[in-house]
Amino acid sequence: MRGYEAQPYARLRENLARRDRSLREKVMSLSEAASFVQDGMTVGVGGSTMSRTPMAMIWELIRQSRRRLTVARSIVSTDGDLFIGSGVADEIVTSWFAQGILWGLSKVMRRHIESGEKRFQEWSHMAIGMRFRAGAMGVPFMPIRSMLGSDVLKLRPEAKEIDCPFTGEKLLLVPALNPDVALIHVQRCDPYGNAQIDGLQFMDIDLAMAANGVIITTERIVSNDQIRRAPDQTKIPFFCVDAVVEAPYGAAPHECYGLYEPMMRHMESYVASVNADPVRGMRDYLDRYVLAPKSWPEFLTLIGMEEVLEATSRGRSIYND
Amino acid sequence: MTEGLRHTASEMLAVLAARQLKNGQVVFAGVGVPLLAATLAQRLNCPGLTILFEGGVIGAFVEPGRLPPSTNDQRCTKRANMVLGSAEVLLLLQRGYVDIGFMGGAQIDQYGNLNSSFIGDPAAPKTRLPGTGGGNDISSLTNMIVAMKHEKRRFVEKVDFVTSPGFLRGRRTRAESGLVAGGMFRVITELAVFGFDDESRRMAVIALNPGVSREEVQDNTGFRLDFHDRVAVTEPPSTHELETLRLLDPERLFTS
């Protein structure tokens, strides 16, 4: 059974019971954490569009040549390009897939999806959210009132129309989505996995609760004492989390709330390269920016200090009056 | 209203779309011209307009010159009333808190159905478009204003794929499919402003943009258009409207 189909409750409970949920340190490297993602798995990706994308983890999965992943995310940007263009993922489950509104259609998406080599499974944005929520709640579906009457629904036999047993109204049931593993990037996390998110949280809390494993990459690792001084800011509890990786600028070249905005010159040069030739342009980009650097900091060096600092200045300005 | 400066088609769209909004409304805005037009309305005559973004923002007040590149970027939250989860903000549509949904469109048909998924046969598409995003949810659950370019290939009798439902096949088909609330309210283009007939639910011209003839609108439309009994002529964008708009988008990100 694929991880993006509703799973029997007993299996969900068994999967959770097998995980070590004790209060323990779980700090590791990007390359060690990548071992939680195995070929053929369904992977939930946190953040949305160009925000808090777990880019360092995706970068590592490409370096380790993972294959046949199904990737689910609320809205997909250049991360989706990288997943399918690198050969890591075969299917993207999302509501919207392009590089960003500023750049029109993604030629990488078009090349791989129109040829039928890869699949793009489309749901409405709220449906994706309710699928993660059902997964987080331990129930097999959630009822929603959108997608009805549309052709988006016609392509989704996984969703079921019903007459409500209470009111007789038409409703759509969307199946729970319990990814095998979730990749989530946050601003702060302690060594146990208590993760604090500033600003937009997107669907990350439901995603973390729904997944059968969670890898947190974090801008910085803080002490458990510091977490306990502001527990209201903890959005994901430690017992959901299997790995904690310190990855400064781990969403680059996308943004991380309050710390840096998207690195637009890098994004623009990426888009120009892959949209000119979605196969060779992607290969060149991967060779230069993903496979050649020896470490994540070396990738950041390739983006360039000037651009990183400029994005940081814009990022921090959200807190200016 | 004073005669305005020279302007582009997308500036015209933004100004006319902003005029459709009323102070006190709650508006769910997509990125691009809708975000810009809602922000423009706030600065012109709707200071009490509440803007929602799908990234998880209530009461946005976007800074001039710092337009967010999507509705999921941190800039959307600046000076907002509340930040919340994406599912939570979409559920506000379902509960009924939103007066107007405000979106762009790639292809529209006579019943206001929008396609942003496929050009050609979905099984073997000529072009795979980005998909619905929140568009299907917004158009399923509230009253819609759509701002889009007016071209014959975009205004078709029947869309290749219904991504975001308008009135589906007309008459009561929208309600019968389970969508009991909302529906298409206005379509704004650089040529005209359109509404939808209460019975047939077909698109009809309610106002022509300045200098545009009925024939020009019909010639650029792929289906037979109805015209209201008293078709108005829209006031051109004023200097004040255009200057305010250009302060918001000085780099012309969304008004090129």
Characteristics of this structure?
heterodimer, A: 321 residues, alpha/beta, Glutaconate Coenzyme A-transferase, 9-stranded mixed sheet, 3-stranded antiparallel sheet, 13 helices, 12 strands, 36% helix, 18% strand, B: 256 residues, 10-stranded mixed sheet, 3-stranded mixed sheet, 7 helices, 15 strands, 23% strand
How is this structure best described in words?
The complex is a heterodimer of chains A (321) and B (256). Chain A has 321 residues and is an alpha/beta fold. Helices cover 36% and strands 18% of the residues of chain A. Chain A is built from 13 helices and 12 strands. In chain A, strands 1, 2, 3, 4, 8, 9, 10, 11 and 12 form a 9-stranded mixed sheet that branches. A 3-stranded antiparallel sheet of chain A has the order 5-7-6, covered by helices on one side. The longest helix of chain A is centred in the middle third of the chain and has 13 residues, at 125-137. Chain A is globular, with a radius of gyration of 19 Å. The model of chain A has no long low-confidence stretch (mean pLDDT 97). Chain B is of the alpha/beta class and 256 residues long. Chain B has a single domain (9-190, 237-246), classed as Glutaconate Coenzyme A-transferase (3-Layer(aba) Sandwich). Chain B contains 7 helices and 15 strands. Chain B has helices spanning 9-19, 33-44, 86-95, 135-141, 173-176, 214-219, 239-248; strands spanning 26-29, 50-53, 57-58, 82-83, 100-104, 107-109, 114-115, 118-119, 127-128, 143-147, 155-156, 183-188, 192-196, 203-208, 226-233. In chain B, a hairpin with a 3-residue loop joins strand 2 and strand 3 (57-58). In chain B, helix 1 packs across helix 2 and helix 2 crosses helix 7 (239-248). Chain B is globular. At the A-B interface, helix 5, helix 6 and strand 7 of A face helix 3, strand 9 and helix 4 of B.
